[in-house]
Amino acid sequence: MREQILNMNQIKKTYHMGDEEQVVLNNINITVNRGDFVAILGPSGSGKSTLMNIIGCLDSPTSGDYFLSNQKVDELDEADLAAIRNKEVGFVFQQFQLLPRLSAVQNVELPLVYAGVTEKVRKQRAADMLVRVGLEEKLHNRPNQLSGGQQQRVAIARAMVTEPTILLADEPTGALDQKTGFQIMELFHEIHQEGKTIIMITHDIEIANHASRIVNILDGNLREEFAHV
After folding, report:
1. φ, ψ (nearest 5 deg) of residue 157
2. What does UniProt give as GO cellular component (predicted)?
């Protein structure tokens, strides 16, 4: 049996607007095992971004239990959430979020700088990770010298360089053309085949179909869960 690394039980998220309560997530239950490739699929306003923020320890639920790598994280303060976030989750964003004045290898180094890794070690690890994503000839290029697909590869390398438990990708092909998006999904396939756990947020069924599990979310409810064949 594979190790369970994420478990959400009866997760609820509400906001108060005056006297009214807005329910964004309604009693969410989801389990993710090590090595899963899960797509959370839903339209705009479905609650998937809120769910992603809770998974990534960027936000806390109003109620319910959330365990990540056997740690109960739903009651932690911001400092403890940040520590778990930095250790357990690698983020890939739709708009890449690269620093324009830094080279590719310097962008990938950043999480290791914050983790206190020595300069020699972090430069080597960052370079190795860029080679892994097919950018061995672009180590010293700045983002404006890279295509959109290359920038997303840098972002994926940055997310993976700390060896996180989960790779959390938010609409990772949303800023790319169809061909480049397909190439990025092929890279995610390769990473998944190497054993990495991936959770991907998307509104696009074609992108979701690249995952091995798809969870549908609508109006804050998980409507359906099925394995992609």
Report:
1. -60, -45
2. membrane protein complex
